[in-house]
Fold this sequence. Notes:
By secondary structure, the chain is of the alpha/beta class. It is 52% helix and 12% strand. It has seven helices and five strands; from the N terminus they run E-H-E-H-E-H-H-E-H-E-H-H.
Amino acid sequence: xxxxxxxxxxxxxxxxxxxxxxxxxxxxxxxxxxxxxxxxxxxxxxxxxxxxxxxxxxxxxxxxxxxxxxxxxxxxxxxxxxxxxxxxxxxxxxxxxxxxxxxxxxxxxxxxxxxxxxxxxxxxxxxxxxxxxxxxxxxxxxxxxxxxxxxxxxxxxxxxxxxxxxxxxxxxxxxxxxxx
Length: 180
């Protein structure tokens, strides 16, 4: 099956790509308008490019689009981490992935987002399935954190010397992380 893999960052791409590459034809897509600091965005983009060179996979990128993201989450600034603001963010990124997958003739799409121990795979998968139905393509359900996926991604990051951030990308999550 030909899949478009939404890549949120290089470390989180390691395990999904590694687990799927032998069974599917994969292209990665870097699309993360939620990263509201341009320097941070560029750093993460360069790291995904580095991984694509090291592991020799095709990488696509959509326009940065932070203003579109800010508009989408407007009014949800005070929401707790992992709740409605995040769901809107997941939907925005997955919808762009689904649209591009359909436009480019992929069979379906999948996301690296489910590797995070801070994200609910059930919610991400429900959004992905709804978008797959909407666009008439397949969404590959996942929970990449299972079977030590997150732990293995940390190990791959160290081995490959990948920049590993400690927050999802938006300033809301950055503030939340700094309070811990």
